[in-house]
Specification:
The structure is a homodimer of 435-residue chains. With 435 residues, the first copy, chain A, is an alpha/beta fold. In chain A, 32% of the residues lie in helices and 22% in strands. Chain A has a 5-stranded parallel sheet, with helices on one face. In chain A, strands 13-12-11-17 form a 4-stranded parallel sheet.
Amino acid sequence: MNIPQSSFPRVVIIGGGFAGLSLAKSLCRKEVQVVLIDKHNYHTFQPLLYQVSTGGLEPDSIAYPIRKVLQGFPDFYFRLAEVEQVDPEKKTIVTSIGPLEYDSLVIAAGTETNFFGNTSLEENSMAMKTIPQSLNLRSLILQNFENALLTDDLHKRDALMNFVIVGGGPTGVELAGALAEIKKGILPKDYPDLDTRRAQINLVQGASRLLPAMSEQASKKAEDFLEDLGVHVWKGLRVTEYDGWTAKTNDKTQFETAALIWAAGVKGVRLEGLTQASCQGKGGRLKVDTFNQVEGYQDIYAIGDIAEMSSEELPYGHPMMAQPALQQGRHLGKNLVAKLEGKAMKPFVYNDKGSMATIGRNKAVVDLPKFRFQGIFAWYVWMFVHLYFLIGFRNRVVVFINWVYNYIRFDREARLIIRPFQKGYPKELYDSQSD
Amino acid sequence: MNIPQSSFPRVVIIGGGFAGLSLAKSLCRKEVQVVLIDKHNYHTFQPLLYQVSTGGLEPDSIAYPIRKVLQGFPDFYFRLAEVEQVDPEKKTIVTSIGPLEYDSLVIAAGTETNFFGNTSLEENSMAMKTIPQSLNLRSLILQNFENALLTDDLHKRDALMNFVIVGGGPTGVELAGALAEIKKGILPKDYPDLDTRRAQINLVQGASRLLPAMSEQASKKAEDFLEDLGVHVWKGLRVTEYDGWTAKTNDKTQFETAALIWAAGVKGVRLEGLTQASCQGKGGRLKVDTFNQVEGYQDIYAIGDIAEMSSEELPYGHPMMAQPALQQGRHLGKNLVAKLEGKAMKPFVYNDKGSMATIGRNKAVVDLPKFRFQGIFAWYVWMFVHLYFLIGFRNRVVVFINWVYNYIRFDREARLIIRPFQKGYPKELYDSQSD
């Protein structure tokens, strides 16, 4: 892999998300060599992927070159590669561009969509965890309307204009809201020769309420907001099968739809070579102690979404959001330096800053540790926080301008089919290879 | 294709470039039904494609939804389709979504890259006529540097950092300049572990000077600018063969390169069904009279790059640029209306507004009909004109902000490999299908 030997111990970080990058930054100018590996050459701001899918933002404004983050960091190396395996005995990882030895390994590889072994769903539904996947979804949404124009079969036309989103977490809720706004503001003008009032947005949630990680109040309000926008919210309903056209559920309800978006679960990105015991977290996430050390290993750490630091109060660890990832990255950086200096590591304590979701124009829900609010002020807070955590000044300005423009004009100008999505096309090109 | 019958005659326009859209606009609220067909759902601002390839702009900011242009136009229809054939006898076109009858047909399909039948070049070199192609090139450029890091073979590493651009027209010149600026401003910071001074940019021109369509003065200055930036300019040299690694020329000169960009010729997009005689323009372009009528047909017109309105002074017709396309579109709109009203059509007269090319920061060349200038003022003029002709307010603002940012920070933040490019991967996915 052509990484020169250093006089300092080598920390290898897998993943350039919030966790990996905040760790990398905290190790700058410390007595370590750092190698950061990611399968993309950019950091993805996942919370805004749904806006890429719905034409509100360009992908380039929520991505940031990892090499740029690391510019000027001495003894830092970035490699574009996929990690295939960990060999804890030899303290080596095996990657698509060869093996690499480590002194400390930090796994910050995040999560991927979990279809729970259901192949009909995996093959026929759309995921939205990466930029290529979000662009595929953008293309499919637009292609379906173009195709709806071409058929005289009303049944088929309705299915092409029916969107079923499975999963009532923030991703599902935000996507449903964005689609509803497109239906209202753009479709009638873009497709005057199509009865777009017949377009449907169905949000299917297995649990008894939306946004189950947030307060009851937020759930209730989010549901109200969605229904105001014309979204059909289904609770206690699970999609069990989807052949690309008909979605069956655990109930008698069925949906005829040409676009099913699966946002109903994630699992830890799987690395071969770790013991079964270490991957026993929910969805195969890595079990870590309060120092983010992976169960059973001294020199392997996990941070961010892939790490499950469970406790009595938090049986499944911290929420899978930017905040715990950022805080764990920063904290582990200090611990690694302390350990090298022969000092004791300190346990991680999560500083809960709350959580939020946006539903649409002037409609958001915010739960702060001390108080909760919904509506237009929540929406401003949501926007401010998202701009703040977006990496890069240029990105912030471009996203801000898009938002102002979209707000004033009720528009989404990135409704572009740059690369058409073909169902059943080699998955490795459209998803895996590029995701 | 589900286009309703209208009481007005039907004008079918193939292509949503400058020509097709300006014609469409000029037919708004006239006594015609208009059907615009394009294989993309967006208009591409081709003059800035090279900035997408070099990470200076996001693709979405130089694309604009065609449906948005046509919003509110009564009796206008857009269809996303590929036109396969014209049947002048039946006054019908055959498309990927079925046949369509026309009363008047306007071909504004533009041009595509011409490899002059050289298969080694067609298979192994990169073209840059569409957004997907530009994104492929962006990915390849960045991937080559990532791969250069991984090899100890100096020969191979040099080839991965060697860019050969064939064609000394505006595309070749602008791309060479942009690559040279990346080499200078970004590579040393992004790749501290790579000797990026060894990166080479070679611009190979068959003719005796660069920018042959512009003045001698502009050619000379462009060459000086490029050489100041460290570009190797080769004149009177033609690349004859390229196997993906070694580029052979008509001379003893050879290049070892992993990235050959072919910008040395275009040809009219081919439509089956027209007579041989009508496609006898240079590169198979359609020969038209001064009313833009295609030779041998009464009801078929061609406008923009695909139309060759030749005369004694202009043996190959007007230059293939935005201006003639815009003017022809507008003019033909008036002529079609005149014809319907039983009035005489007027011949097209080109109002030459000059031409320009940019080489880099503060470096551009401008030929106006009355005077010529080069340097920083030309560069401002170039930027102003390009912002002016870009479609969409949001696009203009986003491009402007990118330019200001890139100028102040000497940066290009869209250096993202969103979808990796694999040489030899099914072309239909990476080019044809999506281009």
